[in-house]
Structures are given as C-alpha cells and as structure tokens.
Amino acid sequence: MPSRKKTSMFASAFCACASSFVVICVALATPRWVSSDVRFSRSGSNVTISLRYGLFRGTCEQFMDAGIQMPEKTFQVADALSGGGRSLNVAAVALLVLALLSALLGSGLTCTNALSNPYATCLGPRGVYGWNGLCG
User: Fold this and answer.
1) SS3 category, 72
2) Strand partners, 115
3) Who's near 103: CB < 8 A, 6+ residues apart?
4) Domain locations in the chain as residue ranges
5) Dihedral class, residue 101 (left if φ above 0, else alpha if ψ from -120 to 50, else beta)
6) Model pLDDT for residues 23-74, shown as the tens digit of each residue
7) Transmembrane residues, as ranges (predicted)?
8) C-beta separation of 49 from 64 below 8 A
C-alpha cells in the first residue's frame, strides 16, 4: 500500500497534468485567438470592420454608421494566411497537439504512480517532475 505522502504527491501531480490537459483543450477550441476592429471615417459615414481569427476559422463583419450591417463572413484561416503566417499557424497547432499528448501521458503516469506499490512506481518522482516540466 502506498504511503500517504507518496499518494498525495502523485495525486497533486495528476491534478496538475489533468488541469493542463483541460487548458490545452480550451486553447485549441477557442474561436477568437486574435480580434481586431478597423474603423474608417469619411465625411458623412463611418465604417467599422471587425475581424476575428481562431486557429482554424475566422469571421469578418462590417458595420456602417446608419445601422447597416453586412452579413458575417466566415473563412478558413489557413487559406487567408500567406508565407510565414501559415507556418506559424501550423507550428502552433503542432505544438498544442504535442503538449496535449504530453499532458495525457503525464496524467496517466502520475495516476499509475499514485495507485501502485511504492517499490514498483513507473519512472518514480523524477519521471513525474520531468513530465510535469515538459507539460509546463
């Protein structure tokens, strides 16, 4: 039977890994990573264009002074980006997926370590600290 100290240490590490997994899932699902409002003013009319970029999809809306609103247009972010922007988007997605897998593996290891015999821990405390550091 594992000691209370070992169980509490690995249980807290499990909570940290599971919470990082949830945060990464939320980051992947967030529809608005970047938002911007562009305002144009001319004599007699004001136009506001609202852009919102997510990881995969973006929206564009146009508002005019008189209360006229153009319908919201959605577009694929990868198609709208060019050159370095596209590679940055791919890199962000790849790193988030890698962090997601790392958090999942870390939470599995810490759960195994918290419930197993203290002499047969999987990677021990160094493994827990290593995986949590990698997740962070």
Assistant:
1) strand
2) none
3) 17, 18, 20, 21, 24, 135
4) 2-135
5) alpha
6) 888 888 888 888 888 888 877 778 888 888 888 888 888 888 777 778 888 8
7) 90-109
8) no
